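Design a sequence for this backbone.
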């Protein structure tokens, strides 16, 4: 696999706001469960704040998740649950193709995926 596919790496409230939707997809909880159950590629002691709500501090663990193809920060699941954030169609299709359960990556697969992410500044 050549490129690294990313979702949810928001750097500003304006950028995040563009993906906020007023209503959840019918399978939103399945999508959130997938995002939270994938392999942890990297973890940090940091805890991100909500970019849209200045009163919501340290909303989740600072971590990077992957299903071997896609990468996303842990905070993406929070944003999908709270703001019904729109994910890329290709990622949604992948989540649905796996029935909402991310593939289990063994240690070698997880390490290889993480190395691809680190090597690709995207």
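Sequence:
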């Amino acid at each position: 696999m050549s490129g690294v596919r990313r979702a949810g790496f928001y750097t500003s409230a304006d950028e995040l706001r563009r993906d906020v939707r007023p209503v959840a997809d019918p399978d939103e909880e399945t999508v959130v469960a997938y995002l939270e159950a994938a392999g942890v590629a990297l973890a940090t002691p940091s805890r991100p704040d909500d970019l849209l709500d200045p009163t919501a501090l340290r909303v989740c663990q600072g971590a990077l998740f992957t299903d071997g193809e896609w990468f996303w920060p842990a905070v993406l699941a929070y944003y999908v649950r709270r703001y019904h954030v729109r994910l890329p169609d290709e990622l949604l299709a992948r989540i649905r193709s796996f029935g909402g359960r991310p593939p289990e990556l063994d240690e070698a697969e997880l390490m290889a995926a993480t190395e691809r992410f680190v090597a690709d500044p995207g």
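The radius of gyration is 14 Å.
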